[in-house]
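Priority: medium. Attachment 1 of 2:
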């Protein structure tokens, strides 16, 4: 167990941040799943910018790696264009 007040606070803070990151990551994965399952090109093109924005935001905050973000965006763009 932690012996310092600041260490106890850090433990609480880390848990809060971990839960927030986990929620945002899961939300992004659900949005990806929804976009990938979309068969209508018009709807997919409307949804694409919001998903890309979400991916960029997570990469900026280091929740996902920037290379992973780039790979996801590239694959999604290719899939939407092919519809």
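Attachment 2 of 2:
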């Amino acid at each position: 167990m932690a012996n310092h007040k600041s260490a106890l606070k850090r433990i609480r803070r880390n848990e809060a941040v971990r839960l927030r990151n986990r929620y945002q990551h899961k939300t992004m994965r659900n949005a990806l799943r929804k976009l990938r399952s979309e068969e209508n090109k018009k709807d997919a093109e409307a949804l694409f910018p919001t998903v890309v924005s979400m991916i960029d935001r997570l990469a900026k905050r280091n929740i996902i790696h920037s290379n992973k973000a780039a790979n996801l965006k590239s694959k999604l763009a290719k899939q939407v264009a092919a519809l």
